[in-house]
Amino acid sequence: MTGSTLDRDFEKSRKRIARCLSRYFDGRAAGLAAVNAWGADFTRRIRPFVLGGKMIRGGLILIAHDRLGGKAGPDAVKAAAAMELFHSAFLIHDDIMDDDPLRRGKPSIHVQYAAQARRKGVNDAPGFGRAAALCAGDVLIFMGLEILASLAAPATDKARVLSLFGRELAHVGPAQVQDVYSGRIRRPVSRAGIYRLYAFKTARYTYSLPLAAGALLAGAGQSAIRGLEDIGLDLGLVFQIKDDEIGMFGSPSTTGKPVGSDVGEGKKTLYYFYLSRARGPRAAALFGKRRPAAGDISRLNALLRTEKIPERIEADVRRIAGRCARRIREASLPPSMKTALSELLASSLKRKA
């Protein structure tokens, strides 16, 4: 954190969202516990998982709403809370699909459930863990819908918010399937295909959706909302590319996940694309090797550096960042919103975790 006004806004937003979610979990705990012991367990297990996140996406809703002069404060906070529930559900499901044992430096939810199953003597504890975590993710999605349904906005505005969330979040599913599919085939992938995957798996729901939702709740016009969606797409692409960089060259203490997890899952990232073009498919054979050893990752990173692939990807980032900066300058938005967007871009470019 740089101590900027934007950082302080994010911290304030996080506290507002956490309070809203805490009240919501408090109100739902008895009902879930009345279902069975797993309902009671859900609240205890999932609450810290949700509240332990950075809440970037929810924070973007509040920042866009507030800096566009919005007056729908409680509704904006509710929308932000729902966004964090949807995001948490995606993380839980993503960890199952990728078989990632860690999230935020702690055992993933499916790993937690598997450990509980072993203590209880359940057959096929890993299978139970995955099944239970899938259900937990589903519950979070339904909770997010319940929160959105409680918005006090006029019916037409509420319908627009629900439609926006539904449309954008539905696109994440096919993109996720493509991501898993691409990781299990040896077929070449195109640079355009990778960017399309980045756009719909991460960029749009991480930045475009929250910025548009905040603007919508603030009563912004359609032109401003479309402009924020385009700016958000560029911000999200930078975010995802930097995420790939952190996954390749970061450390578990920083990322909270095993280093090289994308390599083990065969992710068709820009690193894979450029390495395949430079050295041929055989050079990228480590992508898809389950649980690669630390030595494997070190050799792969050395090869990437030899071929100057980080520099090629950095050139891609600079190109996207330049386009994003131009869109921010040309957008019909208040100066305070433009400042926030410029700070978001700068922060994404410097991101290390």
Task: Give a description of the structure.
- The chain is mainly alpha-helical and 353 residues long.
- It contains 15 helices and 2 strands.
- It has a two-stranded antiparallel sheet with strand order 1-2.
- A hairpin with a 2-residue loop joins strand 1 (102-103) and strand 2.
- It is globular and about 60 Å long.
- The chain starts with a helix and ends with a helix.
- 41% of the residues are buried.
In short:
By secondary structure, the chain is mainly α. Helices cover 77% and strands 1% of the residues. It is globular, with a radius of gyration of 21 Å.
Write out key terms for the chains shown.
15 helices, Farnesyl Diphosphate Synthase, mainly alpha, 77% helix, 353 residues
Which value, in Å, is the CA radius of gyration?
Answer: 21 Å
Main β-sheet, spatial strand arrangement: 1-2
Helix vs. strand class: mainly alpha
CATH class: Mainly Alpha
Number of helices: 15
Shape: globular
Helix content: over 70%
SSE succession = HHHHEEHHHHHHHHHHH
Give the CA-CA distance, first to last residue: 11 Å
